[in-house]
Design brief:
Helix content: 10-25%
Strand content: over 45%
Shape: globular
Radius of gyration: 15 Å
Strand order of the largest sheet: 2-3-4-7-6-5
CATH topology: Thrombin, subunit H
Number of domains: 1
Distance between the termini: 37 Å
CATH architecture: Beta Barrel
Number of strands: 7
Number of helices: 2
Order of helices and strands: EEEEHEEEH
CATH class: Mainly Beta
CATH superfamily: predicted glycosyltransferase like domains
Largest sheet: 6 strands, antiparallel, barrel
């Protein structure tokens, strides 16, 4: 498993992040040796941006292996469902990084790369309204 080193330096992100908690559901679709397996679990957002989310999810062995396989592009599709006040926003995600945290949790950085037009509009409006409220 990869050990993520925390970046210390000038901010390089294109999209600013905003700390907010939403319930989230992840669905890992894993195909190994021709056998499809679905792994679903819940968690929460830690921060969000126009392009992605940082999540906290429970640490379990099958979760860690699925996250690592997804990050390395080894046959794992990641579905993300973020529960907001307006709607459950669904997206396809791309695991960019992960780190095992204390208290049996895993922090995961996910790029939200596939979203329906309506969900994308709601997501963009939500992130922009949070940015304006700060």
């Amino acid at each position: 498993m990869e050990d993520v080193k925390e970046y210390k330096g000038a901010e390089r992100r294109v999209c600013p992040r905003f700390q907010i908690i939403f319930p989230v559901f992840l669905r890992f679709s894993v195909i190994k040796e021709g056998n499809p397996t679905i792994l679903e679990l819940g968690g929460v957002t830690v921060d969000i941006s126009l392009e992605g989310v940082k999540l906290l999810i429970p640490k379990k062995a099958d979760v860690l292996s699925s996250i690592e396989d997804a990050k390395e592009g080894r046959g794992v599709d990641v579905g993300v469902e973020i529960v907001t006040e307006k709607k459950r926003i669904k997206a396809v995600g791309d695991v960019r990084w992960f780190k095992v945290e204390e208290q049996n949790q895993v922090a995961v950085g996910i790029l939200l790369k596939g979203m329906g037009r309506e969900d994308r509009k709601i997501w963009e409006d939500l992130v922009k309204s949070i940015a304006l409220s700060l």
